[in-house]
Amino acid sequence: MDKIYICPSLMCADQLRLYDGIKALEEAGADLLHIDVMDGCFVPNIQLGTSLIEAIRAEFDIPLDFHLMIESPGDKLGFFPIREGDWVSVHYETDRHPARTAAKIAALGAKPLLALDPETPLSVCEDIIDCFEGLLIMTVDPGYAGQKLIPAAVGKIKRARDAFGGGIIIEADGNVSFENAEKMKAAGANALVCGLSSLFSGEYSLKEAAEILRRTI
Ligand code: DX5
Ligand code: ZN
What we know:
By secondary structure, the chain is an alpha/beta fold. Helix content is 29%, strand content 20%. It starts with a strand and ends with a helix.
């Protein structure tokens, strides 16, 4: 699995100019649009409501990379316009039946990924990893953009790739700077959620930042 998927984090885009931002991300070659959904219960923040997601789905073709930071996601999949080609990450910490939820996501034609908080050990995946197409490994504490990398999370990416092999998606999410992106890829990540420390740092245009990122990895 040589391809590295670039997944810009929509919550990091200019919220008043989202149409232009998504257009620019598509033109810059983004692979999927990372959609952070937060319910204010699992994480102390509320982000990206369903009406916005519906409007994006109606206007753009880019696949969506749903990151559901919500309680009981398996009961709420119907809130979202999930379709074939999307990725849907649900947190192990919020779902009492992750394997059942993975099956529901797969039945929609989307790829189920299991999301793990930094403090959640990989051992929880051992008996259910085969129900998922990959892992979303949080490299910061979930809830906010702009946080600093938890260094141990890079080692967790490597341990996950070593343990589960090359066939699964390993998506790194949090402080994916140009420098960290290189380390995360070297550790085995093949999908990168890009936010305030790379694509949306403000130092470059989205196009320039995407080019730098591609050159870096
Ligand atoms: C945090 C979200 C991330 C975040 C990434 O809970 O899951 O997707 O938006 O933003 P940066 O890259 O700035 O950490
Ligand atoms: Zn995310």
